[in-house]
Amino acid sequence: MSAITRVKVGTASCGLAAGAASVLAAFKKLAGDTPVVEVGCIGHCYAEPMVELETASGSIFYSNVSSSEEEIKGILALTPNGRFEVPAARAAKEKLLVNKLAGRINPVSLEEYKANNGFKALEKALALQPLEVVDAIKRAGLRGRGGGGFPTGMKWQFLAAKSSPEKILICNADEGDPGAFMDRSLMESVPYQMLEGMLIGAYATGATKLFIYCRAEYPLAIKHLKIAIAEMERVGLNKLPGRAEPTPIVIKEGAGAFVCGEETAMIASLEGKRGTPRYRPPFPTDSGYNGLPTAINNVETFANATVVFWHGVEAYAAIGTERSKGTKIFALAGDIKYPGLTEVPMGTTLAEIVYEIGGAEPGTVKAVQTGGPSGGCIPADKFDVKVDYDSLGALGTIMGSGGLIVIGQSRCMVETARYFLEFTHRESCGKCTFCRVGTKRMYETLQRIVAGNGVDADLEFIQTLGLKIKKGALCGLGQTAPNPALSTLRYFRDEYEAHVKRKQCPSLQCAALVDVKVDKSRCVKCGRCVKSCPVGAVSKDFVVDNAKCTRCNTCIEVCPKRTISRVGGGEGFSSARKGE
Amino acid sequence: MSDSFTYLEGKGYAKGDLIKALQLVQEREGYVSDDAIRAVAKAVSASEAEVEGVLSFYAQFKRVKPGKHQICICDGTACHIKGSTLISEWLAAELGARSGQTTPDGLFSIDTVACLGCCSLAPVMNVDGKVFGKLDRKSLIKILNEYRKQS
Predict the structure, then answer these.
(1) Cα A324 from Cα A314, distance rounded (Å)
(2) From CA A131, how far away is CA A125, in angstroms rounded?
(3) Model pTM?
């Protein structure tokens, strides 16, 4: 055991959900004098709980660790069993710039961050004039990582040009896209890196107050940020040169409204009001929080600003494509072998991300959804697209903040579109008609189609209404809300037509269009389905009454022989009659 | 449970702190009652209508008393793709309550949220803030039974 200098247990949200807390407790009990510390997430969420052992000859990782005493004793004896290696195909494609320290250091230890280049970026920035810092960010080609891709240097320049005695810089940590967790991980695992970027931004723009607008659903991120800010204040890191007072950094917890990711809505919410967006101009850099000049950047953007100064402008600008520089972190999830976080240079193809990094089997994937409810679905035959702001836009989707959901062959694309519209119509703030009424009508139409009540004209209606909402809506939420429906209609029209014309769901997902059937030739008559059916739809002689059945899949789950399955609508009834 | 909301006093709240005050109430009481609305309005010097306007805008705030254990089903994209609809169905069958409701015995209340950010463990739910991932029917029922046993 003497060779181990330190035990690191990943206890970010994903790790905790996988059981890291009991693993941590077990190590603390059994590791003797060896220090046991909590670290964030290294991105391999599928392998959680993960443990790293620091030894004189380098680190050894173990994955899917349980809290059994035997297993932990084995790990402390450096057993060869259960060791974790990053899959080679993934390692070859990844480039860890922004996420380099995530999961490697104690997230809240200022000393450890400093020992790993921490606050060296701020030091380099402070050696320049503020406008030179703005210029460096411009030359590095950094674009907003929140989704829009607006050049960060230009935004900073607008704010720097204002002569107001008070200016506000806000970090958008609201990460409202369902399916995205890049920012959560950055805040949980390396809170200092993003805070360092914010201080660089404050120096460059002359901002006098910094806000972090973080969603309340991320308690661990908020906890780590609070500790980090207190540490920075303790040693005076937020005292910027030429200022009498330290620059305050304030955390505001969002209260659960997707629209607050839009900058004017976020400002209203920060002011304690309903988070409704407003017309621009005036742009926030002219009149934002309480009327003061305000700029908003995303968590990952600030973390990137730090990286720019760590590595230098030229080195940063050398990564990526012509118009999209640096790397992008993606949250990979869905029908995939290795879900988790990955960081790749801009311009990596979707095929590389989905198959080589995500480990999906070619042929099993139907599409990828990027950009959450604001983005679109890209079909598998277009996976050779290079992932950057402009190429994704050309396919009818957006880069978005980095959520990347892999949709397998067994999922219904119409249902997927319905799901997103259900979300956006619910999250519409209600201010402008196109969004409030338009997204609701789109949702109702999709709802009708998956319920088997669609008509031919519905497809044309979705198309025309969608384009009108995009043109007419006030803010980004409405302008992008039709994307999931429009892109699925563009690439998967055959699925829509199957629902509308033949009342069939080819993926057997839409409950109203499928039946449930017992394959009696293989049934062993164990009776579990009969017993577990919540509505009593399975008869004693193992026939499903599809008029009663709610398609809850309980019988399919409990059947030990997997003889029960979903079949096309109508097929279950005919089998029931045959069985009688 | 406090009816007097004395913890709202002396905080020097202004109108800009309305959301913060509501979050404090929700944390202490578990929901925002009519009495709480009046107390918050007084504390931040806003009208009751303004308070209700803000609180009804945000999904975080609850207007009904929650159950002893609060279940949040995640219906984020990854969880939806991985079958969160079925999780809701199974919960409804097991507990006799749906999203937005509390079970008759007051033991569980169920909510659906947009995303818990644990997408790689989809489908997930959390109970009283503790996240459970890779759910299927069996593990779901096991979790419910453990909470039932505790009570």
Answers:
(1) 14
(2) 10
(3) 0.92
Whole-angstrom distance, CA of residue B120 vs CA of residue A47: 10
Report residue A488: phi and psi, to 5°. -70, -35
Helix (H) or strand (E) run with residue A269 in it = helix A263-270
Distance from B116 to chain A by nearest Cα, in Å? Answer: 7
The sign one gets for the Cα dihedral A204, A210, A213, A216 is positive
The closest alpha carbon to A450, from A508, A405, A372, belongs to: A508
pLDDT digits (tens, 9 = 90+) for A221-261: 999 999 999 999 999 999 999 999 999 999 999 888 999 99
CB atoms within 10 A of CB B33: 18
Euclidean distance between CA atoms A139 and A143, whole angstroms: 11
Q: What is the token pair recorded at A290? A: 């309480």
Interface probe, candidates B51, B77, B127, chain A, greatest A C-beta count within 10 A: B77
CA-closest candidate to residue A185, choices A493, A429, A368, A402:
A402
Nearest residue on chain A to B17, judged by CA atoms?
A272
Contacts of B43 in chain A (CB under 8 A): none
Identify how many contiguous H helices and E strands chain B contains and give both numbers. Answer: 6, 4
Q: Does B141 touch chain A (CB under 8 A)?
A: no
Tokens of A305: 């600003």
In the numeric block, which tokens belong to residue A456? 């031919």
Chain A CB contacts of B80 under 8 Å are: 178, 419
